[in-house]
C-alpha cells in the first residue's frame, strides 16, 4: 500500500536556526497538509496546499512558516527561525482530489518528524 | 468551526465490543463524519467515514442516527493493539479547514 514518507524522523536544532522538514506524499494525491502535535496534546492543523498554493492555514502558521513543493514528489515545511515552542511532532498528510459536497477524501499521514528545539 | 465532543478516555478488556460516541450538534447538511485512529508516535490513520445510518468495513462500524447530531464508532472484539486515541471529524470536502480539525479525541485503553 502506498504511504506518505517523512524525513528525517528526528531533527534536533538550536533556537533561531532554520529547519526544513521533508515529505513525499502518495504519488497520485493532489492535496497536501502539515499538522503538528506537541507532546501530550492534540493534532493541530497548520496548512493545506493544492495546485501549488496554500488553500487554508491556521493561526499557528505565521510568517515563520512556509511550504513548498519544489518538484513533482516532495513537499516541504520550513521554519525560518525556530523557537523552543516549535518542539513537536510534525505530520505530513496527503489526499486525493476532493469534489465539493462529496465525502472528504481520507487523509493519509506519514509517521512524522520529531523536532526538538534546544 | 464545527465542534465535536468525545469522552476523554475509555477502558475496555480484550474481546469486548467498544462503542465511542461523538457529539456534533451543529453538523451541516453536507457534512460527513470521519474517524481516525492514532497510535503513540505515529500519524493518525483513517478508520471509517459515513453520512447517515450505518457503515461497516473490515475494521469498524459507524452508526449515525437520523438527526445526525452524534455518531458512534463501534469496534468489535477489541484486542490490546486497539489501544489508541480515536478522533471524529466533521465536514465535507467543500468546508476546507473545518473538516481537517482534530479535537481532543478519546483515549482507549484495552486491558488483557
Which pair of protein chains has the largest interface, and what are the residue counts? A-B, 30 and 28 residues
Largest sheet of chain B: 5 strands, mixed
Distance between the termini of chain A: 37 Å
Q: What is the CA-based Rg of chain B, rounded?
A: 13 Å
Overall mean confidence score, pLDDT of chain A: 92
Give the overall form of chain B: globular
Strand content bin of chain A: over 45%
Strand order of the largest sheet of chain B: 1-9-8-3-4
Can you give the helix content of chain A as a percent range? under 10%
- Report the structural category of chain A: mainly beta
Give the assembly state of these chains: heterodimer
Largest beta-sheet characterization of chain A: 7 strands, mixed
Point out poorly predicted stretches of chain A. Answer: none
Number of helices of chain A: 0
User: How many individual β-strands of chain A?
Assistant: 11
Shape verdict of chain A: globular
List the secondary-structure elements of chain A in sequence, H or E.
Answer: EEEEEEEEEEE
Mean pLDDT of chain B: 91
How many individual β-strands of chain B?
9
Rounded to an integer, what's the Rg of chain A over CA atoms? 14 Å
SSE string of chain B, helix = H, strand = E? EEEEEEEEE
Compact description:
Chain A is an all-beta fold and 118 residues long.
Give a written overview of the molecule.
The complex is a heterodimer of chains A (118) and B (112). In chain A, 0% of the residues lie in helices and 47% in strands. Chain A starts with a strand and ends with a strand. In chain A, the strands form two sheets. In chain A, strands 2, 4, 5, 6, 9, 10 and 11 form a seven-stranded mixed β-sheet that branches. A four-stranded antiparallel β-sheet of chain A has the order 1-3-8-7, with no helix packed on it. Chain A is mainly β and 118 residues long. In chain B, 0% of the residues lie in helices and 46% in strands. Chain B is globular and about 40 Å long. In chain B, strands 1-9-8-3-4 form a five-stranded mixed β-sheet, with no helix packed on it. Chain B has a four-stranded antiparallel β-sheet with strand order 2-7-6-5, with no helix packed on it. With 112 residues, chain B is mainly β. The A-B interface holds A 4, 33, 35, 42-45, 48, 55-56, 58, 89, 91, 93, 98-112, 114 and B 30, 32, 34, 36, 38, 41-46, 49, 51, 87, 89, 91-94, 96-97, 99-105.
